[in-house]
Amino acid sequence: MNKDDRERIIAPEHTLRADKYPLEDYSAIGRRGVRRKDGYEKATGYAVYTTDVQLPGQLMLRILTCPYPHARIKSMDTSKAAALPGVRALLRYDDPELPERADVSGHFGGGTEGHEPVLNRVGYWQGMPMAVAVAADTEDIANEALGLVEIDWEERPFNLDQEEALKPGAPLSNPESFPDGNFVIPAQQREAKVVWGNPDEGFKEADRIIEWRMRKDKENWVGPERPNGLFRWNGEYPEVWLKHQRPHLSKRQIARFFKIPVSQVTVHCLYQGGTFGGWSQMALNMQPNMIAGILSKRTGKPVKWQFTRREDFCGAGMDNARYQVKVGFKNDGVITAVAATSCFARKGFAHLGHFVENTRVHHLLQESNGAVLNIMPGSAFRCEQNMNALCLGAVLNRVAEALEMDPTEVALKNDGVEGRPMADLADLKRAHGFGGDRDSLKECIEVGKKAIEWGGKWHLPGTKRLPNGKLHGMGFTFTHEWSDSSGSGALGMRIERDDGSARILAQRCDNGCAAETAYCQIAADELGFRYEDVHYRQFEEAGFTTMTPDSSTNLTVNGYAIRNAARQLRQKILEIATTPRIPERPDMGYYPPFPDYKPEDLDIKDGVVYVKKDPSKRMTMAELVRPAFFMGKMDIGSTEPLFAWGWQNQQGAFMGTPGPRPIFVRQAHFVEVEVDPETGDIEVTKVVNANDVGKAVNPEGVEGQQYGGSVMGISRARAEDTIYCPATGVVLNGNLIDYKINTMLDCGPIDTIIIETGMGYGPYGSVGIGEDVATVLPSAYYAAVHNAIGAWVDMPTTPDRVLKALGRL
Amino acid sequence: MKNFAHINARSLDEAVTALQRYGKRAAIIAGGTDLLGKMKDEILPAYPEALVNIKTIPGLNLIEEKKGTLSIGALTRLEDIAIDARIIDGYPALAEAARRTASTHLREMGTIGGNICQDIRCWYYRNQNNRFACLRKGGGRCYAIDGDNRYHSIFGGSVEQGCYAVHPSDTAPALIALDATIKTSRRSIKAEDFFQVSVAKTTVLDDDEIVTEIQIPKPAGTSAFVKFALRKAIDFPIVNCAAMVTVSKKKVTAARICLNAVYVKPYRATAAEDAMKGKAINEANAEAAGAAAVSGARPMPYNAYMVQIAKTMVKRAILGCA
User: Fold this and answer.
1) ipTM of the assembly?
2) Looking at domain A3-30+485-650, which of 3.30.365.10, 3.50.50.60, 1.10.3720.10, 2.40.50.180 is its CATH number?
3) What is the pLDDT of residues A703-718, one digit of tens each?
4) For B147, which of A728, A744, A798 is closest by C-beta distance?
5) Which chain A residues are closer than 8 Å to B146 by Cβ?
6) Cβ atoms within 10 A of the Cβ of A494, count?
């Protein structure tokens, strides 16, 4: 094997350049109408989710949640609860077995999130699980027991609003961990202030400068499957069923927590029931699992826990933020500088990153302030890039408004990478292995405009009233298409002895639409098999790390791993097919079909191995690998097992990390709305998504993400907000009636367009789509509402805000 | 959910007897779409000890039109009302109100009797695990007054003590506009007298009294129902409105207009009715009637927008009768 072969087969592809080894012909990849591998199970209800798992003798665990936004327990009497028949174990905050603080954060596995008491004596937000946990025969008994716990609370003053919390004299939100004040550098930022280029210079270059304030309120993740888990001890070692996107990291956390070797922890990861990043990101994510582990050990029984929907609503929300934005620009629409100060509730995601990644704007100032509050912690779901996308979309559309320009023109004027205009980047594209001739944003805008009839419909803001009396608006935004987080994937692949089919062995990775199906499509083409002969077999124990550490990438990492495994396996098949025969024992063992050929003389297509020069010499895979008769009695395998493994290590693309990848693929979104000026109602009449996904491995999966992302995107922009009572600090709309998640009916027709420029860094030039649409679309909606009424309305655009903007209140 | 007795009543008498036996510790169940949610969320201080199931009583699921009166059995499901051709043609406000109620699944379960007997809507009252001991639960205060009241009353609190919750039924205003009569196991009550503003109850029914039938006279005029909600697939109203308007020689001779979700009980907009009398149904007159309807509004700090919407709903309901 020479160096090139070795690199081709074994070494992970370099993720900072284009795919070097795309296929010449695609058969399964990109094909429509392939049967989804998980389709039957999910459609019939046979798919098993963590919540479905029941073990004999299991106890149900319930944890007290804080009824106040900020309160300390003065004293607690659990004797009545412990005495209730059916209660098997109870754990208090002062239990000697509990460490003072532990890593229960879930997301970072002890990284940037601080360690917390497992059961805190102080509650820092309403709904925080704390103080006492009960394991009982039934959930009702456990609940009843919690009701019998007598607590003398010391209610403390609280903060619900970051700007109020940062004013002098505001009460401390968390005096135990933040005794010096409520200000923090947001957890997601290394520094409060980040500068690119020279913003002062940029503003000097500008013909005009505009400034404004805007806000985005706190939405909730609402996964269909509520947070739950199941923990049991098999003697000394635990077995855990986790609903989690990163079970391999949680496995390490469990080992550390219980001080046992990782190798002795068994973690099962089943179907996910819709994660959207949510639950796995939450602050106390691993808390119930650790408590279940302690109480399972004490009782000798499996312990299951599941939060109620309301508790789930109090767990974590997407960070709300206030922004002060200042933009300098030329009269032709070229933006010269952007400075934006944000005020977050502690977490604080980046908000100007997308200017670096896909504009020519090279003077930027990003300042992030954070405040510790007494509301649920900030989390990342539907992707934390929402803040970045919102700022980019708002700047683009505000500049267009100020210049009375079409925002699609402003976008094209500013498209670029790391401060360089896209028009000058053909060489850079080529340096990264891409063709260099295609312009992704231009293509996205062109097809998107056509689909929504932009040419005939777009108008200056606030200038079109329809015959039905409603105000008509058209909105647009763009950004890059991303799948850029670092991570690695590993998996196995084997050939079934009897029928010659292939099986991918990997941990279940139920993120996104049709991921496992897409893996099988890749394997089929790389092996030369029919798609129908490639299967995904869940390797249930968390070991193969097919979920990248922050779950933001899936196919673009695992697709490479699949390909690496498939290419090795294909090579093995051909080597076995061409093994020389053993003349003295023709009756025994394996009888190689092509003894006189070399592997390179053969090819595999549709599951048939044949001689390239003489295709009449052929054999099906089933014939090739069939069991041989041995001594006339037994079916045995008489060749080595046909197995291979693949892995892929992807370097991250975040700016400021080593080896950023300039991103050339773009997405553009268009939204049409009608605003009822008498009620403030906004009807979305059309959505167009134009996504350059590089190469669509599973087109229906891509479209699934576009449809789902559109509904989520409209919903978060139009309606979603977690509402706290200003007087009591309690979540008021923690249920699916009062939390106004929008549905398909609220979204209008959705036109999904797939563009394939091949300029992604994933296999075959692909790039991810899972996080993109729901994250970016809100900016297009925001712009459409403005285009309709001529005033900017913060999201969610509830009727009261719209009526106020219209001067009706 | 805790255990409770479940009594399948075979007749009205049997149901009444069971209710008398348990007193305030019993609840009536038909479709159960409101009651079971309340029980699961544990919003009340105490669980009912017994549920008296009236679905097993024969003869309460019917739609009949005779001698100029439409009779709808209390157990008739909302979906059956929404799709009944006689109701769509003759009583469009009611058909539309039923059609806009909740979601298809809930309409297939929920009954018209249950819809008018449902409990009030308030996210303090309905906060899970009985989090707020508010006026309706024997506590001393209405939390909505100092809290977030974006979905609360714009016409003040209940008379006695000041509960600012709203009545969320979609069919109730339609029945009031259509001048329906509610028949119970004991008496007949005009729809507009059926609801009450007490903090203890939403209707005038006694604890052992059961709605059996709704009777609607043949409308003299045309009727319409409009609803403003934040979602199309399923939602309670922010504001809804039903109107029945009789026109003679292009002038309104009689009007019955009722808003809901704006007050502790359905709010008959008599000022709007008066404003329309003798006038033609047109944009300007309907607009003026809408303004009249909300002239007595006293919005809370978070719900002034509901006044604007209520005004619009009245206007559109009137125009819908043209």
Assistant:
1) 0.97
2) 3.30.365.10
3) 999 999 999 999 999 9
4) A728
5) 726-727
6) 18
